[in-house]
Amino acid sequence: MMKRRALALLLAALTLVPVILVAGCGKDDGGKKGGPAVVAESREEEDTSRNYDAKIHDMHGHQFWFIVRELGKYQHLTVNEIYAEELNGDKVNDAVFKRNAALQEKFNCEIREDRVENPASAVKEQLLAGEYQYDFIYTGVSQLRPLSASNLLVDFKELEEVNLEKAWWDQNAIEGLGIAGKAFYVTGEAGTMDERSSWIMYFNKDVLEKAHIEMPYDLVREGKWTIDQMYEIMMATHDDLDGDGTYTIGKDRFGYIGQADNNWFHVAAGGLHLSRISSAGEIEIPATVSEEVLTAWTALKPLLTSEYRDVADSGSRFRLGLGTFYSCLSGSILNMNKSEQLNFGVLPMPKLSEEQEDYWTSFSSTWCYGYAIPVTTDNATDYEENGFSSGREQAGYFLEAFSYYSMGTLAVAYYEQVIKGQTVKDADSIEMMDIALKNKVYDPVVIFSFGKLGSALFISAGSNGGQVAGTGEPAKGSDVNYDTLVSLYESRVTAARKALKNYINYVTAED
Questions:
Q1: Is residue 152 a contact partner of residue 374, using CB atoms and an 8 Å limit?
Q2: Averaged pLDDT, 398-405
C-alpha cells in the first residue's frame, strides 16, 4: 500500500516554506513513494533509511548521460526532472537546476541528456553492439521490458552501490515492477512520471452546482464515493445542450468522458488483480477470472453501457464544459489549470461498493517511467580511476546520489506546480489528490500485458458506450457480462503463461 504525505505537510509545501535539503526530508513512509514532505515530524527516533552514508567519489569530470523520452505534443507528460539549462523561474526547472549544480560540484561530474521519441528503440542497436553511450535510460516500463527480456539492462539488486531499501526509492514500485526477484527499472524521489501516470477522476464543479448537487468530497471522506454514486450524478447532469433530441460529441454534455481502457482502471479501483504473487514470491496467472473481478464487472455495467459516456478521450471537451466527469492521468491536471473558464475538482477513482475499505488506483505502463542502466555501462573507461569495480557500479552509485538529492526538492516543486492556481479556490482537491494516489495496484500481468491480459482485455470485453467514434451515432451499449470476459480471458491465458515463463527464463538464464 502506498503511504502518502499528511495533508498538513502538503499544505505547508504549497505555502512555499523554504526547503532545506537534509536527510530527514522527502519521505515519511519508509521508502514508499508519495508527495513532498518539508520537515520531519519527529526526530526522536533516527531513521537510517534517510541517511546518505556513501563515500564521496571524485568523478574526474565524468559526463553522466541520460536518454529520455521526448513528447513535445504532450506537455503534461514531458520529462522535466533530469536536466535544466538555466534558472528560469519555473519551480520544477529551478529545483532540477539547483540539484544538478549541487551534484556536479560535490562529485566533480556533469549531467547531460538526450531526448528522443523512443529511447528504448534508439539505444537497442547500440546495446546489441556493446557500444557505451548512455549511463541511464528513462522511459515507460512498457518500453523497457523488451530490453530487460533481452538481458540488456542491469539488475539493480546486484549493485553494491545501490541500496534499494533507502527512503529515496519507491519500495512498492520495486516490488510491483519486479519479476523473478529482479529489479531492472526503479523509480522514487527522482521521478514524477509514476505519479503523473496514475488515474484519478476530475469533475466539473459548475455542472454540479447548477444541478444543486453537493460536491462529492464528503462522500470520499466517509468512504461512500462509489461507482453507483458517480453514475447517479452522471445521469442527473448530462444535457442535450443544443436541444435537437440527440447527443452529439462536441455539442452536448456527456456524463462521463474517458478512453476505452478506463474499463480496466475502474476494475483496479476495487484493489483487484488478474494475477497474484504467491507466498513464495512467484507470479501466478489463474486459469480463469476471479469471482471478485467478475463481481466488479457486473457493478460497472451501467457505466460501460451508458449512451451518455464519451470514450473518445478528449480532455479538451471536458475543459469546454462538455462532461461532468473525466477520468484520466493525474498529470492531466497541468492541462486543466490552463483553462481559466473551467472550475474543476479532483476525486479518487470511485470504489466498487461501500464495503470496500480503501480507494485504489492503477497507472499506465506507457507513462509510468523507470530509470534503467544499460549493461554497456561496463564499457566505460574511467570507472577504475573513479574508484569503482565496474561501469555499472559507477552508474548505480550516481543514480543513488541523484535520487537522494531529489528528496525534499523535486517532489515539492512538482506538487507546487501541479496545484498552482487550484490551491486557493479548492483546497479540498489537495486532500483528494492525496487520497487518490495513496494506494496503487501493481499487477504484473497487466503492467507487462502478457498474452494481452491487460487493459486490452477489458476493452474487448466491454462496451464502447457513449458515441461510436467517427459516426456521431449513439451506441446503446453491448453485453457486459461474465461470459464475454471469461471466454476472452481463457482464450489468452495460455499465451500469457507462456510469455511470462519465457521472460523469466531469459532474465534468469546463466551467462
A1: yes
A2: 97
